[in-house]
């Protein structure tokens, strides 16, 4: 049984299909058709809705893709959809600004855009253009060319009177308090089940009891198996209610990130030490996906084109695997064995990721190369972390995504650099060495030749960036 | 606005109001009629309609071979899945199987030979979509593979065509080329484009008591859906009603290809007697439906020392996919636009309609025009580089104009050419020359990033080239409270057509926009309509609605002359009032009066475009009523190490005649520009060697996202320039022309690459110019430069 608010209304669901997405729940069960399906794969944002979550004595609002979210995720939260914004005849400022700025044409993307703007308004007082772009990069509009949408997002802040959600906040908090998960919730429908454990012990027990169960963190990867590949999942374990898995700790030496912490929260934790990693996370999928998706999920799905693993490997991050009361710590690079195969044993799960602090960690840069700059999967991701002392490369950790069946270090390239003088001649040698490290594939994202060429060229970019920091070297510098 | 408020107004108050201008008529930036409903989720799209308890949902199973003979289809396993109602194949279709719009070639379900990967083979209806899918996948299909043709060059070489080539010819191009002092020649692949309307193809059908169908279809062409549904069911057209309130985007993709889902739903509804819905999931939509035609274009052009073109030969080979669909007209339009705004000298332009085993390519904003129009831009860039001149100078030199240089290669006179002044204006306002210098300085000091700049024009012909399509109808009723019901044959896909047409009617009657209720396009209200396409929606339907309004208005005037014993000059409709000599009445009161005096308050309106004709035998005529013009200046930055790029600034100046609604027109221009830029940059369609589309979803096919918009985006309308032709309020069509402004981005990218050769080489660059293609072009130029300096 799960309990949640649909706007203000308490809903308790016992036997829904646990594979059902929030989008289908809204459209098919509740008949709320304002939220649209444009792709059912998390790419278009037409299905954007907002979740309100209790955070101390506040509500945190985040935009998510309803098409990627399993219904069990709603437990204990408030679900806000486009229908909830208008009060009587009065449009919400986000809606009114869209109308005033002629920002809808066919209108099919519009409910999703309104919801992204609504969440933005809730989270940031007066967003600048970059923040607007960030909030809306996961909302595709085929009609407008976006200019009026950006203007609407800028202008909605002219309205400073609190909206209904602000006025009713105390009541909503009281309502949410009543439905905060106290114990493990469970859904069942035929042979399909889903569990929301609240402790690590419960999780361990479930993994033991259901060896074939699939863990869901954000579900931004797993949901595609159901919606795109049509492989229903019998047993789902939603790990987003386990507080221990969501913690982020900062010590002198390490940033420790719980596996189920959202990528949005990871950004806040990592951007300071590693601005390039922050920039990478900003180009990771879309805000909706980063609000849901987790670092554990990004590692656990063991994709050769996942964005965080190469960066974390270059930073010499460790991953902590846990089974019941036993934890073991692995170098992240050793977690990935082969295509979609990992060192994770049955019953084990990723508990946390440990990233060393920046101070003793060299010159870190990472470069995501994709067809489209925002919300695209990397064709190549190159991550470089060199320590250079008095003109000599003391150590080199270099890892790539998109170049092999797993995120992988460029060992020959690293060797060519280590101990060599830091100059262009060394870079040329390192480029040659890099050719031995990888034989990437050709696919619709890029050809083998392009991947190889770009990977070597990124060494040049790295060199120029370190040597002449004043020179602009990335098109993404233009915003 | 109700009667009662007016009745309470005094004579003086009404006179004061009548002195004011209408605020929501023509030329005003009235908001899109659906905007408030769209932002609140209240606007109903077809999938949002209430379903019936016995609703059926359909999944269409498609071919996983590009070319094959189907040896067996066994649907009996489908019925083992609980919840399945029916599984149909071609032999279950009661009437015509082929739904090709003009020529056959598009079977609703394949009977024998599969022609592309993703072609519909069978359809299963069940209580829900997932069940239907599961059951459809259980069907057994066996094939005998045949050799597919997947490449347009191969089709061209082997003359594997869906229909015959067509040629435009003026003068003797081979003699002109032989005489020419300089020549350039080459070839380029122009990529296709997925429409990516946000709402996928959908139709929902309800059987009627007369053996007919009510069809809710997301279509740009209700009349054709009506015809095809009737034909596949073998029933008269009058038993089929199509209702179309709004589409979640169309862009041409719902001109012919919305019919398939509607026909399948109708066949199942007929066979089961149950309401039936077909909605394509995104991937199926992308695999099943056609796209913008990819082209393979070859050219040889002669020019003189100044850079003036003297002769030109082009072969434009459009990849039509597996069937004709609308390809004849689309390839024709590419040919009609292979001059863009330039006089080509003696010219021979031939368009080939190549057949490949891919989905049947179809209408897409610009309708082949863009794929032709880009050619002179590529050519003029090359001429400029060869002569060491700025491409803008060469562009301006070659514009239409002057003695003997004002007729196209299909013998239409270019009248009222706005381009020379428009280009001068934009060159000034975009600060082109200064920025050209700034960019050279930037590039000299930037080791990795290079900037590029390009200013390119657009001249686009307005009218359907199939002349008979240039007609439209409308229907207006005025009710006794003065409220107006408006219907017309055009379809609303976001472009603001309904808003503009309502503004036109508001202007005619001098009533507020809010007085007018626009209703769903419906074949029972306005019959025999043309598709909403070719940018002509407002030109045609606006005029038809204006004619309907004028018919009623004339009746009202005649009534008033008689009733009040005044003359026609004494009667004036002004801002929700009617002045009759020294009397004044609220519009609603006047209507009430007309009603009790037995005046008909309902009328249809009709319009056909004058002046146009085209003779295919001589390849001469005036296919276009007029031309729309525009120009864009784009600045980009590219990364020479990765090929990545970003659009920094875009200035657009565009001609819409006298704008009916500036905000909507600017919205069209911006949206079209970004879509055009997407076509030429990140939107790459990739098929594997089996003919399977690999970029079959938004995860792999990348349309512009918010950060792909130009960082600095400045759009202006040409002011004080009415259309010289008698179009509705002297406006110009706006849907398609600005799409081709996106070419300036492509040329700017090439300009940035060319900077690596000190602007001596024009890089070869197929489209879309993905980062990968840009990187290869950069490398080719760098290697070339190395070679040259070694020599
Ligand atoms: C539109 C779209 C864009 C995307 N863009 C990017 C991108 O730019 N870069 C990128 O890298 N990825 C991208 N992704 C993929 C995905 O969003 C990320 O991989 C994300 O980090 C997954 O996290 P999650 O929490 O949603 O994982 P889930 O979907 O919940 O899980 C993914 C897998 O990891 C397993 N798993 C989850 N948590 C754990 C754990 N604690 N221990 C062990 N196994 C676990 C699950 O069982 C599942 O097999 C994109 C996805 C979509 C839909
Ligand atoms: S429907 Fe496209 S992101 Fe959810
Ligand atoms: S308004 Fe049509 S997709 Fe955005």
Topology:
The complex is a heterodimer of chains A (479) and B (791).
Chain A (H helix, E strand, L loop, with lengths): L1 E5 L2 E5 L8 H8 L18 E8 L2 E8 L12 E3 L12 H8 L9 H14 L5 H8 L10 H9 L8 H4 L1 H10 L6 E5 L2 E5 L3 H10 L4 E3 L5 H6 L7 E4 L9 E3 L3 E5 L4 H8 L4 H8 L4 H6 L2 H6 L7 H7 L3 E6 L2 E6 H4 E3 L2 E2 L6 E8 L6 E7 L10 E10 L2 E10 L6 E2 L1 H7 L6 H14 L10 H20 L12
Helix pairs in contact in A: 2-3, 2-5, 3-4, 10-11, 16-17, 17-18
Chain B lengths: L2 H6 L2 H9 L15 H5 L16 E7 L5 E7 L9 E5 L24 E2 L5 E7 L2 H10 L1 E6 L6 H6 L3 E10 L2 H7 L2 E9 L11 E6 L5 E5 L4 H12 L6 E5 L14 H14 L3 E4 L2 H7 L6 E9 L5 E11 L7 H10 L9 E9 L14 H19 L3 H8 L20 H11 L2 H14 L3 E14 L8 E8 L5 E5 L8 H13 L6 E3 L2 E2 L14 H28 L6 E4 L2 E4 L2 E4 H10 L5 E7 L4 E3 L4 E3 L3 E14 L5 E10 L7 H19 L31 E6 L25 H12 L16 H20 L1
Parallel strand pairs in B: 1-12, 10-11, 14-15, 18-19, 28-29
Antiparallel strand pairs in B: 1-5, 2-4, 2-6, 3-5, 7-15, 8-13, 9-10, 9-12, 11-20, 13-14, 16-27, 17-18, 17-24, 21-22, 22-23, 25-26, 27-28
The complex binds flavin-adenine dinucleotide and FE2/S2 (inorganic) cluster (2 copies).
Gyration radius from CA atoms of chain B, angstroms? 28 Å
Which regions of chain A have little confidence, pLDDT < 50, spanning 5+ residues? none
Mean pLDDT of chain B: 97
**Helix content class of chain B:** 25-40%
Number of helices of chain B: 20
Sheet/helix structural class of chain B: alpha+beta
What general outline of chain A do the C-alpha atoms trace?
globular
The helicity of chain A comes to 25-40%
| Corresponding CATH architecture of the largest domain in chain B | 2-Layer Sandwich
Number of strands of chain A: 20
Measured between the Cα atoms of the first and last residue of chain A, the distance is 47 Å
Structural category of chain A: alpha+beta
Q: Using DSSP, what is the number of strands of chain B? A: 29
Query: Please, how many domains of chain A?
Result: 4
Question: How big a fraction of the residues of chain B is strand?
Answer: 15-25%
Low-confidence stretches of chain B: 1-6
CATH topology of the largest domain in chain A: Ubiquitin-like (UB roll)
Mean pLDDT of chain A: 96
């Amino acid at each position: 049984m799960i309990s949640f608010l649909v706007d203000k209304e308490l809903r308790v669901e016992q036997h829904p299909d646990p594979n059902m997405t929030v989008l289908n729940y809204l459209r098919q069960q509740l008949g709320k058709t304002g939220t649209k399906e444009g792709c059912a794969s998390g790419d278009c944002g037409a299905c954007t809705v907002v979740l309100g979550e209790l955070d101390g004595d506040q509500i945190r609002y985040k935009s998510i893709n309803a098409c990627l979210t399993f219904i069990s995720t709603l437990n204990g939260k408030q679900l806000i959809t486009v229908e909830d914004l208008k009060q009587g005849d009065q449009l919400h400022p986000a809606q009114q600004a869209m109308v005033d700025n002629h920002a809808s044409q066919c209108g099919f993307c519009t409910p999703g855009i309104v919801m992204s703007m609504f969440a933005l308004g809730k989270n940031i007082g007066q967003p600048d253009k970059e923040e607007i772009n960030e909030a809306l990069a996961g909302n595709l509009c085929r009609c407008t060319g976006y200019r009026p949408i950006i203007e609407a997002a800028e202008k909605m802040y002219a309205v400073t009177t609190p909206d209904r959600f602000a006025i009713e906040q105390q009541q909503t908090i009281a309502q949410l308090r009543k439905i905060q998960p106290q114990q493990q919730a469970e859904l069942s429908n035929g042979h399909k089940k889903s569990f929301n454990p609240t402790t690590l012990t419960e999780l361990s027990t479930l993994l033991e009891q259901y060896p074939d169960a699939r863990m869901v963190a954000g579900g931004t990867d797993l949901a595609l198996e159901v919606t795109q590949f049509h492989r229903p999942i019998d047993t789902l374990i939603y790990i987003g209610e386990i507080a221990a898995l969501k913690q982020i700790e900062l010590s002198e030496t390490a940033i420790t990130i719980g596996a189920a912490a959202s990528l949005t929260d990871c950004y806040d934790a990592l951007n300071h030490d590693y601005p390039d990693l922050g920039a990478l996370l900003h180009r990771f999928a879309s805000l909706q996906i980063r609000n849901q998706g987790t670092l554990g999920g990004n590692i656990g799905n063991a994709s050769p084109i996942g964005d965080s693993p190469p960066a974390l490997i270059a930073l010499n991050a460790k991953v902590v695997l846990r089974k019941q009361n036993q934890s073991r710590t692995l170098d992240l690079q050793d977690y990935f064995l082969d295509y979609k195969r990992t060192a994770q044993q049955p019953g084990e799960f990723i508990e946390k990721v440990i990233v060393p602090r920046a101070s003793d960690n060299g010159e870190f840069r990472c470069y995501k190369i994709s067809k489209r700059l925002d919300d695209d999967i990397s064709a190549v991701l190159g991550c470089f972390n060199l320590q250079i002392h008095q003109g000599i490369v003391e150590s080199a950790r270099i890892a790539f995504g998109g170049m092999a069946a797993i995120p992988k270090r460029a060992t020959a390239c690293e060797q060519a650099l280590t101990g060599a003088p830091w100059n262009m001649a060394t870079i040329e040698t390192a480029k040659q060495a890099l050719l031995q490290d990888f034989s990437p594939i050709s696919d619709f994202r890029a050809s083998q030749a392009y991947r190889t060429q770009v990977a070597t060229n990124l060494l040049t970019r790295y060199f120029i960036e370190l040597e002449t920091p004043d020179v602009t070297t990335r098109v993404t510098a233009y915003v | 606005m109700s009667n009662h408020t007016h009745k309470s107004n005094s004579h003086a108050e009404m006179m004061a109001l009548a002195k004011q201008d209408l605020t929501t008529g023509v030329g005003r930036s009235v908001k899109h009629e659906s905007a408030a409903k769209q932002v609140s989720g209240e606007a109903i799209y077809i999938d949002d309609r209430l379903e019936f308890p016995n609703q059926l949902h359909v999944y269409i199973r498609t071919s996983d071979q590009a070319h094959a003979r189907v040896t067996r289809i066994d649907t009996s396993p489908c019925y083992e899945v609980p919840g399945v109602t029916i599984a149909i194949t071609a032999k279950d279709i009661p009437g015509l199987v082929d739904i090709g719009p003009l020529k056959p070639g598009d079977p609703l379900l394949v009977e024998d030979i599969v022609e592309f990967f993703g072609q519909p083979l069978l359809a299963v209806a069940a209580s829900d979509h997932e069940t239907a899918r599961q059951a459809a996948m259980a069907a057994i299909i066996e094939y005998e593979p045949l050799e597919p043709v997947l490449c347009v060059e191969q089709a061209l070489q082997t003359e594997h065509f869906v229909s015959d080539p067509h040629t435009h010819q003026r003068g003797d191009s081979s003699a002109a080329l032989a005489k020419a002092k300089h020549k350039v020649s080459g070839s380029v692949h122009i990529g296709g484009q997925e429409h990516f309307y946000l709402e996928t193809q959908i139709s929902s059908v309800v059987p009627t008591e007369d053996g007919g169908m009510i069809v809710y279809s997301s279509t740009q062409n209700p009349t054709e859906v009506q015809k095809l549904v009737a034909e596949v069911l073998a029933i008269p057209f009058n038993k089929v009603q199509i209702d179309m309130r709004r589409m979640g985007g169309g862009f041409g993709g719902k001109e012919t290809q919305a019919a398939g889902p509607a026909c399948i739903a109708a066949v199942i509804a007929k066979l089961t007697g149950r309401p039936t819905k077909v909605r394509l999931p995104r991937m199926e939509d992308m695999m099943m439906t056609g796209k913008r035609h990819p082209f393979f274009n070859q050219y040889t052009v002669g020019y003189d020392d100044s850079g003036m073109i003297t002769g030109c030969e082009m072969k434009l080979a459009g990849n039509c996919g597996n069937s004709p669909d609308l390809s004849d007209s689309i390839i024709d339009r590419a040919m009609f636009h292979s001059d863009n705004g330039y006089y080509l000298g003696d010219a021979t332009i031939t368009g080939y309609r190549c057949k490949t085993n891919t989905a049947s390519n179809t209408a897409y904003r610009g309708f082949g025009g863009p794929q032709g129009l880009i050619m002179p831009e590529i050519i003029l860039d090359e001429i400029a580089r060869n002569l060491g001149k700025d491409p803008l100078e060469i562009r301006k030199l070659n514009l239409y104009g002057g003695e003997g240089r004002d007729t196209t290669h299909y013998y239409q006179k270019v009248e009222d050419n706005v381009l020379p002044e428009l280009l001068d204006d934009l060159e000034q306002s975009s600060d082109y020359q200064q920025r050209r210098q700034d960019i050279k300085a930037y590039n000299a000091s930037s080791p990795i990033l290079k900037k590029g700049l390009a200013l390119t024009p657009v001249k686009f012909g307005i009218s359907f080239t199939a002349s008979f399509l240039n007609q439209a109808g409308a229907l207006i009723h005025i009710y006794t409270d003065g409220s107006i019901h408006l219907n017309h044959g055009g379809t609303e896909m976001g472009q603001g057509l309904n808003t503009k047409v309502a503004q036109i009617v508001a202007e005619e009657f001098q009533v507020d926009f809010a007085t007018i209720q626009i209703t769903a396009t419906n074949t029972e209200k306005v019959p025999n309509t043309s598709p909403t396409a070719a940018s002509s929606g407002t030109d045609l339907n606006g005029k038809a609605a204006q004619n309907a309004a004028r018919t009623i208005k004339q009746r009202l005037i005649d009534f008033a002359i008689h009733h009040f014993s005044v003359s026609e000059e004494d009667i004036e409709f002004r801002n929700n009032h009617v002045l009759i000599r020294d009397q004044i009445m609220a519009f609603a009161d006047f209507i009430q009066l007309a009603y009790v005096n037995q005046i008909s308050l309902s009328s249809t309106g009709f319009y056909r475009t004058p002046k146009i004709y085209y003779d295919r035998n001589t390849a001469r005529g005036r296919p276009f009523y007029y031309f729309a013009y525009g120009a864009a200046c784009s600045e980009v930055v590219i990364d020479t190490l990765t090929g990545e790029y970003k659009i920094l600034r875009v200035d657009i100046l565009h001609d819409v005649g006298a704008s009916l609604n500036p905000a909507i027109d600017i919205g069209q221009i911006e949206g079209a520009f970004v879509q055009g830029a997407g076509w030429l940059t990140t939107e790459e369609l990739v098929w594997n060697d089996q003919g399977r589309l690999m970029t079959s979803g938004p995860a792999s096919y990348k349309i512009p996202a918010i950060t792909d918009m130009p960082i600095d985006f400045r759009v202006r309308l040409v002011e004080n320039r009415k259309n010289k032709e008698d179009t509705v309020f002297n406006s110009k069509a706006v849907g398609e022309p600005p799409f081709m402004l996106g070419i300036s981005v492509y040329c700017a990218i090439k300009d940035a690459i060319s900077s690596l050769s000190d602007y001596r080489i024009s890089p070869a660059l197929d489209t879309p110019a993905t980062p990968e293609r840009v990187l290869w072009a950069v490398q080719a130029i760098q290697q070339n430069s190395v070679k040259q300096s070694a020599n």
